[in-house]
Amino acid sequence: MVTKLVQKHPLKGTRIFEIIDDTVNVQIKLPFKKEESLTVMLTVLNQEPVISKSRLEFTSRVNNEALLSLYLAKPNAEEFNAFVTLLKQKIQEEFSAFAGLKTGKPSGLEGNVYEEPPAFDEPDTAPTAKYKEVTAEGIEEAINMLSKHIGTEDIAPFLSALEALKTNPQSEEHLSTVMNEFHALGSTQGAVLTYAPYIATLLSDDPFSF
């Protein structure tokens, strides 16, 4: 079982990916630069990766932003394929557990679990609070995690929208505001989903209805 993948590039340094419990830890060692590290929750990743030029990318369930980017077939095809296969399996297991689903669902249902969320700017297809099991406790936990790991200044409008939704979790108006403020976060969206995976439940199709 390959739980760790080390990829080296002559110009772009070394990337180390390691699956630990319900996360993927990433270490990036660049020449003449400080080492970077990132932790990505498996529950926020789409199970099926996409190929972008010479890389295989695992994207966010909410906005399809690339959160993990691996060099194709590095360090070798066998080790690479084994790691990707395990990663896809773990993503399915963790998301199913997070959503209250059983991993043994018939294959006919799997497409629904991993389909892309609808465009939030289309009122007819946008998810609404009444179809979700939105709880004040879940929102509060997300607020606390974001305040602790990201800080309040960088995402203040988004946190304010979450606070408003917490007071009335079934408010479609408050949920719509949360969606709009999330889109306004730009590159910070990935960090928000990493530290507060409950946000993915608010912004995507309701996983509890299957």
Write a compact overview of the structure shown.
With 210 residues, the protein is of the alpha+beta class.
SSE layout:
Blueprint: E1 4-9, E2 13-20, E3 23-29, E4 36-41, E5 50-52, E6 55-59, E7 66-71, H1 77-98, H2 107-113, H3 136-149, H4 156-167, H5 172-183, H6 189-195, H7 198-203
Antiparallel strand pairs: 1-2, 2-3, 3-4, 5-6, 6-7
Keywords:
210 residues; alpha+beta; PH-domain like; 2 domains; four-stranded antiparallel β-sheet; three-stranded antiparallel β-sheet; 7 helices; globular
What does this protein look like?
- This protein has helices spanning 77-98, 107-113, 136-149, 156-167, 172-183, 189-195, 198-203; strands at residues 4-9, 13-20, 23-29, 36-41, 50-52, 55-59, 66-71.
- The protein has 210 residues and is of the alpha+beta class.
- It has two domains: 4-98, Pleckstrin-homology domain (PH domain)/Phosphotyrosine-binding domain (PTB) (PH-domain like, Roll), CATH 2.30.29; 118-209, no CATH class.
- It has a four-stranded antiparallel β-sheet. Strands 5-6-7 form a three-stranded antiparallel β-sheet, with no helix packed on it.
